[in-house]
Amino acid sequence: MIKQLAAVAGIFAIGSAIAEENCRPVSPDHELLWQADAWLNDTVEVLDTVILEHCGEVVFERYYNGFDAETAHDMQSSTKTFTGLLTGIAIDRGMIKSIDQPIAELLPKQRDLLEGEKARITVRHLLEMTTGLKWVDFGAERSFDRQARAADSAAFILGEPLVSSPGETYFYNTGSSHLLSAIIHNNVAGTTAQFAEKFLFGPLGFEGVVWNRHGDGVNEGGWQLYLRPIDALKFGRLLLNRGQWEGEQLVSAAFIDAATSYLHQTEFGGAGYGYQMWHVPDLGSNDLAGARGWGGQNILVAADLNAVIVTNGDILQNPQVSQTVERLLGEFLIPALQGAP
Asked: Which of 2, 11, 13, 96 has the most CB atoms around its CB within 10 Å?
């Protein structure tokens, strides 16, 4: 059974990616991979998926707890990175004028809530989580339950007070991700999920995707996406290749480069934030980045090592999963590739 629980955090992202065709395959350190396998066999109660791809070749792949490559997994806050990339696609295709377009022009039904300082909120502010709008992701009185009861999910978020001026302060805010989904929903033909199927999921060959919606029909922009691990791996490969897939540019390289930049320092252990993506230092790679969700739902790209890493874990055991993933990457998987170009 696919576990379901309110998502609250994502913590990794991608830096400047390099094209897969420039990769010169170098055999990974198999001794370290064997050690990883032995260690993981004692840790299967918290991890469901581990995949390491180097230079387009899967060199390590393990599944636990009844999961396999074809079993859709709850991606939790990794959903945010998909919503962010879909925003880039909508900009590329002219459905959104630019990253600096005021969202009042894109959400006409909620325009009356975007007055005063709120009228300054742009798509960029949503992507970078700098809107200043109140949202509570952690602890007591989280915003998720109140949003779930709202008839209009975007109106609920926009009706919250400003706690800082737009563009002034970064703080982790799932409401921003959902507003991006609402913008896509209201400015393309069909839902966010249908837009994704046409321009992202379909071209990548995703199957069995589930993306739950709020009661008003808008796909949850910050969570509630379920993907097969083999499809998460394809997404990571797309990021590594700066938006190109089998000769087609699905999203502009310029958007990928901006999205994966270290734009803001975060409250999460020195990690940086770009456009709905995270950048993580101090695990052995100079350029480790991608999507991360609560409970170890990671799609990580080590651009300097030409590698993609996918993990899934038990969302009910987040602290243990986070520690496990950090050790797995820092002691085994990344060092195993240190001889790569």
From this structure: 13
Identify the helix (H) or strand (E) that includes residue 60.
strand 57-63
Q: Report the distance separating Cα 105 and Cα 122, nearest Å.
A: 9
3-state secondary structure of 185: helix
Residue 310's contacts (CB-CB under 8 Å, 6 or more residues apart) are 49, 50, 51, 229, 232, 233, 236, 298, 299, 300
Q: What is the CATH class of 8-71+228-341?
A: alpha beta
- CA separation for the pair 280, 340 (Å, rounded): 20
**Domain segments of the chain as ranges:** 8-71+228-341, 80-190
Strand partners, 302: 288, 307
DSSP 8-state secondary structure symbol assigned to residue 331:
I
Q: Is 270 left (phi over 0), alpha (psi -120 to 50) or beta?
A: left
Structure tokens at 55: 């230079």
Cβ neighbours for 189, distance < 8 A, ≥ 6 positions apart: 195
CA–CA gap between residue 272 and residue 280 (Å, rounded): 7
**Three-state helix/strand/coil letters over 250-316:** CCCHHHHHHHCCCCEECCCCCCEECCCCEEECCCCCCCEEEEEECCCEEEEEEHHHCEEEEEEECHH
What is the average per-residue pLDDT within 9-22?
A: 40
Six token digits for residue 340: 């790569």
Mean pLDDT of 27-32: 89
Amino acid in the structure at residue 171 = F
Mean pLDDT on 229-236? 98
Q: Determine the pLDDT at residue 288.
A: 80
Check residue 289 and give its pLDDT.
82
Per mean pLDDT, which range of 30-44, 74-88, 217-231, 273-287 is the poorest?
273-287
Between these two residues, 271 and 147, which has the higher pLDDT value?
A: 147
**Listed residue (86, 87, 82, 78) closest to 9, CA to CA:** 78
DSSP state of 246: T
Q: Are strands 225-227 and 73-74 parallel, antiparallel or unpaired?
A: antiparallel
Span 291-334, pLDDT tens digits? 999 999 999 998 888 999 999 999 999 999 999 999 999 999 99
